[in-house]
Amino acid sequence: MIASLNKEFESRVRLGIMSVLIVNDWVDFGEMKQLLEVTDGNLASHSTALEKANYIEIKKEFVGKKPRTSYRVTQSGRDAFQKHLSALEKLLEK
């Protein structure tokens, strides 16, 4: 049962990122940082790990002269997170 849990989601920051993205389309860096109450570096490292796992998409662009980073969950990320939540629910039922 516990083997069904996804190691990519063990961190509270990664759980938070995925939870925010499951219910929103694109979320920008500043908003995500504020919602999760994390540092720039913490958010950047956890989001990069989720991107490498193909669970989120990171878009970097310029708005005027200011850089903007935004995040969106991928379909494989959505599927993996749902499986993870189902495994957690089964553990809690015991």
Compact description:
This protein is α+β, with helices and mostly antiparallel strands and about 90 residues long. The chain contains four helices and three strands.
SSE map:
Layout (H helix, E strand, L loop, with lengths): L11 H12 L3 E2 H8 L3 H13 L3 E8 L2 E8 L1 H19 L1
Antiparallel strand pairs: 1-3, 2-3
Using brief descriptors, characterize the structure shown.
3 strands, alpha+beta, single chain, 94 residues, 3-stranded antiparallel β-sheet, Arc Repressor Mutant, subunit A, 4 helices
Q: How helical, in percent, are the residues?
A: 55-70%
Please identify the structural class as seen in this structure: alpha+beta
Report strand order across the widest sheet.
1-3-2
The name of the CATH topology is: Arc Repressor Mutant, subunit A
- Second-tier CATH architecture: Orthogonal Bundle
- Name the shape in a single word: elongated
CATH superfamily: Winged helix-like DNA-binding domain superfamily/Winged helix DNA-binding domain
Question: What Rg do the Cα atoms give?
Answer: 14 Å
Assembly category:
single chain
For the residues shown, what is the average pLDDT?
94
Low-confidence stretches: none
Q: Report the sheet-strand fraction.
A: 15-25%
> What composes the largest sheet?
3 strands, antiparallel
Q: Ends: how far apart? A: 10 Å
CATH class: Mainly Alpha
Number of helices: 4
How many domains? 1
Q: How many E strands? A: 3
Q: Order of SSEs, N→C?
A: HEHHEEH
